[in-house]
Amino acid sequence: MERMKDSDARFKSLELKTGLLVFFALVGILAVVVSVGLERDIFSKKFTLHFYTDSGAGFKEAMPVKISGFKIGRIKGIELSETAKVKITLEIGKKYQKWLRRGSIAKVGKEGFIGEASVDVTPGSPDGQMLVDKDVIPYEKARGVEELVEEVKPVLREVKDIIHYVNDPEGDLKQTLGNVKDVTAGLQSTKARVDGVLDETNAAIKKVQGLVDNVEAKAKPAVDSATKAVKNLEGATQKVEKIMNDAEAVTKKLPATTEKIDRVIDNVKTMSDAFVKDTPRIRELLSDVGDAAKDGKALVKGIKEGFPGRLVLPAQKPPELVPLDGALPEK
Amino acid sequence: MERGFGKAMTKAGSNENLSVLALSLLLSLALFACNAGPNRTIAQAKAVDAANYGAEAFANGDLQRAMLKYSEALRLDRSGDSRPAELLDLLNLARVFIAMEDLEKASAFLKDAEALSIHLKDEARLSEVKATASKVMFMRGDYDAAYKAIEESLAIDKGLGLKSGAKLNLKGVMLSRQARKQEAVAVLTEALNINRKDANNAETANSLRALGRLRLGSAGAGALEDFSAAYGLDKALGDPKKIAVDLGGMAEANLLNKAADDAAFLFERAYIVSVSAGLNKEAVSFLDRLVDMHRSAGAKDKAERFLRLKEAITGPAPIDKTGSPKVEGE
Questions:
Q1: Which of A39, B107, B215, B314 has minimal CB crowding within 10 Å?
Q2: Rounded to an integer, what distance in angstroms lies between the CA atom of residue B153 and that of residue B137?
Q3: How many other CB atoms sit within 10 Å of the CB of residue A45?
Q4: Is the Cβ of A192 closer than 8 Å to some Cβ of chain B?
C-alpha cells in the first residue's frame, strides 16, 4: 500500500492539482456570474418609479422598460393599490435617470404588430425636474387591437351597405346607368338628325343673308332721316345753350336777390324780437280776452236761463234714453 | 175813488223813504226773476247738450257721432259726479254699441250701469239695463241667460206698473227660438197691441216681423200679411236692414204659397236693398236663396248670374264634387 501511494509520478502533488482545479473552476464560475450580472446590470445602482393603471392585463414582471427603444430597466412588481388600481413598479438603472424628467409618460408598446411587449417611457421635458426614486409617472393607455376593431366595425358595415346599394339591380345607380346606356344609344340617331338640322340651318343662314342685303338697301333712307334728325338735334342743342346762357344771367342776379331776401329776413327778425319782448304783454292781453270770454259765456248763460232769455230762447231739453230695439238678428 | 187813490199815490210818491223801499222791492223781484232758471253748472249744461246731440246723431243713423257725443256727456257727468245723468249716459252708450254690433263694449257699459242703478235704487233704469243686457246675451248666443234677464226686466216693470212693447218683443222672439210657439204668439200679440196703442211704429214693425217669422214656420198662413205690414212701417222709418228682412220674409211667404216668380222678385229686391246699404252679409244670404231657387227650378243661367253677383262680393266660391261652385248651406 505505501509503495502504490508514493511511487507513481501521476500522483505527485495531486492535492495541489486538485486544489488548483477547484480554485480555477470557482474563479471561472465567479467570472461567469459577474459577467452575467454586469451584462444584466445586477450590480449597477437602480431607482424605482411607479405608475397606476386600471387593468394589469398585458403587464408581467420582468417586462422590459425602454426609452426610445433602448432598454433601461424592467418591471419589478405588479400589485393592487388601496383604490383597486394596479400599481406597476419599474426598476430603472441610475445611469438613465438623467433622461427621466417631469413630463415623462409610460405606455405599453409592442415591437411590431405581434412583437414582444414592453413599457415605453417618454423622455419628458429637458427643462423638467429629474425624477427621483419612488416618483409616480403618468400612464397613457395605448389603443389595442380590440379598440381598433370596434372602430372599424361601423365602417365595414357602411361599406357593406354601399356595395349592396351599388349592386342593387332596382337601385338608383343601376337604373341611372341603364338610362345613360339608353341615352347613349339614342344619341346615335340624334346625331344623324342634328346633321340634317345643320344642313337646313346653313340654307336658312343663306336666306337670312339675302334678307340682310335687302334690309341694307332699304335702311339707307332711314339712315338719311336719322342724319337729318341729328342735325335738328344740333339746332335744339344750340337753343338749349341759349337758355343756359339766360340761366347764367339770372344766376348772376342771384346775389343781389339774396341780399334783398337777407334784408327781409333781418326785418322779420327785428319784428319777432319786438314780438318776443311784447310777449308778456300779449300773454296778459290773451288772459284778459279769456276772462272776458268767460264772463261773456256766463252772461249768455244767465240770459238764456234767466227771466228775459227764457221768454225768447227755447229751453234746454233734458236728455232722453235711446229707445230699446226689440228686434233680434236672424239666426 | 180814483182821485183818492191818485192822491194817496202822489202822497206816497212824495215820501222819500217809501219810494226807496218800493224801488228796492221791485229790484229784488226783478233779480229773483232773472235768477229763477234751473241752476246748472256749465259742465252739466254741456253734458246735456252733448247727450242731446248724441240722440240726434243716433236718430239720423250716425252711430259714430252718437258714440262720441254720448262719451263726451259721460265724461262731463262723471267729472261733476252727476250720477243719474251718468247712468243714462251709460245705458245710451250700451245701446249705441249694440247698434254698432260691438257687444264687448256694450257689456262693459251695462255692467257699470247695473251697479249704478242698484246704488241709486232706480228700478226703472235697472229694468232697462236688464232688458238691454238680455239682448246682448242673446246676440252672443247665451240664450238661457238672455231669457232669464228679460224675465227679470219684465218682473221689475210689472212691479212698477209699466208695460214695454219692445221688451215683450224680445221675449217673444226668444220664446220662438226655443220652439215655444204658442207662448211666443201670445207674447208677441200682446206686444203688438201695446206698441200700436203707444203709436210706436218701430216696435209695431218688430212685432209684426216676429209674428210673420213664426207663421212662416207653420205653413205660412198670415205670414205674408204680417211681413207686408212690417215692410210698410219700416219703409216709412227708413231702416234698410229691416226693409230687406221684410222683403225676404215676404219672398219666403210667397214661396210657401207657390208664387215662385213673386218670391224671386222679392228676394232680388231684398238683395238690392241690402247691397245698396252696404249690408253684404244679408245681400249674400239673399243671393244664396236665389241661386238655390233657380237651381231647383232648373234655370241654370239665372243661378249662374246670381252666383257671379255673389262672387263679386265674397270672391270665387270653392268647387263641389260635381264641379259646380258651392252655395252656402250646402
A1: A39
A2: 14
A3: 9
A4: no
